[in-house]
Amino acid sequence: MTVKSYTGDKEKLGSAEQFFLQLSEVKNFTVMVDGMLLMEEFQPNVGILQLQVDHYLQTCDSLLDNKSLKQFLHLVLVTGNFLNSGSYAGNAAGFRLSTLPKLMDTRANKPRMTLLHYLVEVAEKQDKEMLDFISDMKYLKQCARISFEALEAEFNQLHLGVTKLKEQIEGDDTNLIEHFGKFIQQALKQLEKLDCGLKELRVKASKLAKHFCEDPNVFKVEECLSLFNNFCEKLKSAQKENEERRKQEERMKQLKQQRLTQQKGRKKDTRIRQSSVSGILKTLLQRNTSDSEDPRELRKKYVS
């Protein structure tokens, strides 16, 4: 038995049951409740989604147009061709994005130094701005956590809720149109703008696939963003480790210089002592010689 089918004394019902019974008597109360919940949740959700789409678009533009990123990728290509000179891969016109994570796997002849560390070192020497793309793409980390499919799914859910409410209130003679009509008009305009952003994002994804010579049929923009985010994090680590190594090498150089200085000082002290002993012996010899003592006897006296 439901509260709605109850025909007895309403006063005997609890307060919650009485409230639900009164609510069930309101015409289209289900539509009213669902509509009010949609109005309450729509603006925060669409605002967050619009911001995510905008950040996604900005990040895609950065990957396509950032000058310092192009310079660094060119450095990677030139270095790779040099290392592979003489082989079939030594004259490449480009490389796949999957190559970037492998830069950490190629070891140098210094401890804890990889090809990526070397490239960072060269980039900083050639042009200090070549690594600016690491900080330029400020939304990369945030966007790398969001899939394009998730954005579309969130949009479809919002759009479905608004269109469903619109269909439910059409032709209704109650105050539903008056209550929800303005909200639906504004919501549809916001969703139209959001849909344009998602369509533009699809175009950007195709451009990225073409820009990086990837297969557009399997290319996923979220995977591309995740790859570059991880790559930038490794670049930051390489920068930090290079700086620590430079400081350590400088300390070792200073210690070596101190040891050389100390060694020179000890050698000088030894020469001074030897000179002093020779001077004393010479003085004694001269003094004894002045007393007309036979030099042969004098030699026997001090040498024996």
Overall pLDDT metric: 85
The count of β-strands is: 0
What global shape is seen? elongated
CATH class of the largest domain: Mainly Alpha
What is the fold-level CATH name, i.e. the topology of the largest domain? Methane Monooxygenase Hydroxylase, Chain G, domain 1
Q: Supply Rg.
A: 41 Å
* Helix/strand order: HHHHHHHHHH
Quaternary structure annotation: single chain
* Separate helix tally: 10
Describe the protein.
The chain is mostly helical and 304 residues long. The protein has 2 domains: 28-242, Formin, FH2 domain (Methane Monooxygenase Hydroxylase, Chain G, domain 1, Up-down Bundle); 255-303. It contains 10 helices and no strands. Helix 2 runs antiparallel to helix 7 (148-169) and helix 4 packs across helix 9 (221-290). The mean pLDDT is 85. This is FH2 domain-containing protein 1-like isoform X2. Pfam families: FH2. Residues 1-261 form the FH2 domain.
Describe the structure concisely:
73% of the residues lie in helices and 0% in strands.
